[in-house]
Amino acid sequence: MPEPFARTTSRVIPIPRANIDTDQICPARFLKITDKANLADALFFDWRFTPDGARRVPPSFIDEPHNAGREFLLVGDNFGSGSSREHAPWALRAWGIRAIFSTSFADIFKGNALKNALLPVVVSAERLTALQALVAADPDGEWTVDLEAQKVTLPGSDSFAFEIDPFARTMILAGTDEIGYVLARLPEIEAWEAGHPARIDTLAGAG
Amino acid sequence: MSERPRTLVEKIWDDHVTASDPGAPAILAVDLHLVHEVTSPQAFTGLRERGLKVRRPGQTVATADHSIPTLDPSLPILDELARKQLAQIADNCREFGIPFHGQGSPTRGIVHVIGPELGLTQPGMTIVCGDSHTATHGAFGALAFGVGTSEIEMVLATQTLLQRKPKTFKVEVTGRLQPGVGAKDIILALIARIGVGGGTGHAFEYTGDAIRALSMEERMTVCNMSIEGGARAGLVAPDDTTFAYLKGRRFAPKGAAWDEAVAGWRKLPTDEGATYDRTIVIDGSALEPMVTYGTNPGMGLPISGRIPSPADLEPAARPDLERALTYMGLQPGAPIAGQKLDVVFIGSCTNGRIEDMRAAASVLRGRHVAPGLRVLIVPGSQQVKHQAESEGLDEVFKAAGAEWRESGCSMCIAMNGDQLEPGQYGISTSNRNFEGRQGKGGRSFLASPLTAAASAVSGVVTDPRTLPRVASQSTAVEAH
To answer: Which among A90, A104, A108, A118 is the top mutation candidate for probing chain B, defined by the most B β-carbons within 10 Å of its own β-carbon?
Structure first.
């Protein structure tokens, strides 16, 4: 059951790269776990450490000392492309990331993120450029993401609205569980199934 | 509503909406749920915590493919985590009553290879799996897409998913492919054209003469990499090629049920006059073998081409290309053909089926791999393995100096010990060339089985059309 989430204020970690895929966010060798433990350590692992395991010099984005504790990422277009692994949003959340600003997100990643109350905030290309300039000029400025109001407030009280799937927004604000929502609709699903027999029986067909 | 001309995707969608609230996503019925060891454990844990059962175990099937070793299966699995994960999928399937094609089963294999070969994948179905390459099953005219672990839990618990309807994107590939050019080259060319985010929010429908002429296995190769173009799903309308492939397979309908099913499937293709949200037309007759040079599948070019230069791009686009070329250790302007290789990998859900094995064998028969090169050939399933062995292809590969393995995802995702070493160059028939995808620091070129096999012979990236013929070679390259 996700915790309700409405509003958070943080400084921003800029990562000026496009097409950041889920193999970068959480490399595949960390997918051998059977729980969700210790995934913060896996986040952007190969950006942070050399193949020999030494921390890179200079440190990679999230390892830069001044970025410790920051909850927002500002990234390039098409964030979260590639593999469907939910380990990517799990790792981001485990690190403490609550919202990501980009011009677009890959479909599967976006769905997975919303199910973990990790907000994909989609902005226009012009807005992204402006936000990148803002962070460059004011690297320690605090931004506030307000999901209830669908509004981002920037330092100096500048603000802008953002779009988000209204259903996901409702679920995140309430901390409601989607499985519970669907299970409550089971009578309708069963009625539909009565008129639509299963197309396959994987338990049969031994011959 | 049924009067309006509809696309294939819209028809399948309409057939599966069980309920929907205004403003909320539809509750979409799932016909077939494919499960593997890597993305499912936390979903089963969630079910246990809720005290729920798997609602429809008879519409669920599981296998082990991602973290499983491809070495002799009688050897112990040395990787503690992989061993535990593989034990857990077996335990979970036993506890929840899900049929499991696990280690030792003659029907084990990569989830996207076994679904079709068992006849589980059928036209008009909704099919999901905790794996982004689920789009493979779209080759049969099924709406098939990858999901995350929360969604796996949802499907296990309810046999439905909360979904919003995808937009539609028609990909028309016209004309006739030239000899030596195949399905992999079509999809790499599409992604190079539209970029890795080009299909976001859409489902592709592949149409046109070049698609119609493809075999089912080739169509699977095309649909498989839809996600690399940003689309969760990619479909080909079912036709006689589809039905001929399916007929007689273990889970395909039989007798009168078969005739009834085919009659229904013939109604699935997109209606005359239906419209798509987007369309692209690719001249199939103009395609060359394709190969990637960078660190995402959109960074691809014809094999006669040269590596692009950041100087030729818009300033804003330069840093990503510069970074990719630095990672790859490649020079702008250099020809992609002739780049040196350390490893060749032939396999994966993209190109690990029997026709791919035959294509590789057609090149390697009577030849030897280049000195110092490691060539790993991994069948997509145990059934593919046995078929290849019955045709003597394993002997062709071994005589050529290649390794022949048990089935699995292997070096496509490098979770099972099969991997590139830091700095190594590999040409791979798999689907992703992301940094580190095939092993920490490894550098991948994606290409077709013919191109990979030709490159295995010469030890450098090689256009399969340029290899001199050998006396014992069939005309497979020409006829492909």
So the answer is: A108
- Look at B148 and A111 and tell me if their CB atoms are within 8 Å: yes
Residue B30: which of B7, B52, B65, B60 has the closest Cα? Answer: B60
Domain ranges for chain A, please list them: 7-195
CA of A4 vs chain B CAs: smallest distance (Å): 17
Q: Cβ separation of B162 and A178 shorter than 8 Å? A: yes
Q: Please report the residues numbered 334 through 373 in chain B whose beta carbons come closer than 8 angstroms to any beta carbon of chain A.
A: none
Q: How confident is the model at residue B3 (pLDDT cuts 50, 70, 90)?
A: confident
Amino acid, res. A160: F
Using the Cα atoms of residue A70, residue A72, residue A77 and residue A79 in order, give the sign of their dihedral. positive
Note the pLDDT of residue A177.
Answer: 87
- Structural domains of chain B in order of their starting residue, each with its CATH number: 8-165 (3.30.499.10), 167-239+270-286 (3.40.1060.10), 290-479 (3.30.499.10)
**Which H or E run includes B115?**
helix B111-117
Strand pairing category for B143-146 and B126-129? parallel
Three-state secondary-structure class, residue B228: helix
Mean pLDDT of B93-117: 97
| Inter-chain touch B436–A23, beta carbons under 8 Å | yes
Provide mean pLDDT across the span B379-394: 98
Question: What integer pLDDT is reported at residue A80 of this predicted model?
Answer: 98
Asked if the Cβ–Cβ distance from B162 to A182 is below 8 Å, we say yes
Closest among B363, B387, B148, B371 to A80, alpha carbons compared = B148
ipTM of the complex in this document: 0.97
Instruction: Inspect the interface and report whether the beta carbons of A51 and B131 lie closer than 8 Å.
Output: no
Q: Judge contact between B30 and B59, C-beta under 8 A.
A: yes
Contacts of B151 in chain A (CB under 8 A): 111-112, 115
pTM attached to this predicted model: 0.97
Contacts of A120 in chain B (CB under 8 A): none
CA separation for the pair A164, A169 (Å, rounded): 7
- CA-to-CA distance for A121 and A131, rounded, in angstroms? 12
Return the residue of A nearest to B151 by Cα. Answer: A112
Is the pLDDT at B480 greater than 50, yes or no? no
Judged by a CB distance cut-off of 8 A, whether residue B255 touches chain A is no
pLDDT above 60: residue A138:
yes
Query: What is the largest distance, in Å, between two alpha-carbon atoms of chain B?
Result: 68
Structure confidence at residue A3 as a pLDDT band (50, 70, 90): low
* Cross-chain residue pair B196–A19, CB shorter than 8 Å: yes
User: What does each C-alpha distance from B180 to B304, B359, B400, B465, B471 come to in angstroms?
Assistant: 13, 10, 21, 6, 18
In CATH, A7-195 is 3.20.19.10: yes
- What percent of the residues of chain A are helix, what percent strand, and what percent coil, each to the nearest 5? 40, 15, 45
| Element of type H or E holding B46 | helix B41-50
Cβ within 8 Å, pair A108-B25: no
Task: Give chain A positions within 8 Å (CB) of B313.
Answer: none
What are residue B164's phi and psi, to 5 degrees?
Answer: -100, 145
Q: Closest by alpha carbon to A77, among A25, A16, A164?
A: A16
The interface residues of chain A toward chain B in range 71-110, judged by CB-CB distance below 8 A, are 76-78, 81-86, 89, 104-108
